[in-house]
Amino acid sequence: MSRPTSIKTSEEVRNRLRILAKERGTTITELLEELASRELTETEREQRAVEAAAELGIDYSEQVQQAGQDAWAKIRTHQGGAAA
């Protein structure tokens, strides 16, 4: 079992987390755990991209990587910057 810790944030963010947790019938801690577990790290995203390219029979070159990054940038633009 991990030890509890604290995270400093603004009251506005804390209040929003409290509301979101309440609406989901959970705690702020559980909400943060869920959010953290569903977001991929840069290393995990890169590994998934390599695996996806391999499944498609594509060499994961710098050009393929750049094309993917450019595509995601366009997607984020059309989503108002909401995607990570």
What brief labels describe this structure?
84 residues; 0% strand; elongated; mainly alpha
Write the layout of secondary structure elements.
Blueprint: H1 11-23, H2 28-38, H3 42-55, H4 62-78
| Mean pLDDT figure | 90
- For the report, how would you describe the main beta sheet? none
| Helix/strand structural class | mainly alpha
Radius of gyration using CA atoms only: 18 Å
Helical residue percent?
55-70%
Strand content: under 5%
How many beta-strand segments?
A: 0
> Distance between termini?
30 Å
Low-confidence stretches: none
Order of helices and strands: HHHH
Number of helices: 4
Apparent shape: elongated
Protein name: Ribbon-helix-helix protein, copG family
Could you explain how this protein is built, in words?
The chain is mainly α. It has a domain at 42-78. Helices cover 65% and strands 0% of the residues. The protein has helices spanning 11-23, 28-38, 42-55, 62-78. It is elongated. The two termini are 30 Å apart. The mean pLDDT is 90. This is Ribbon-helix-helix protein, copG family.
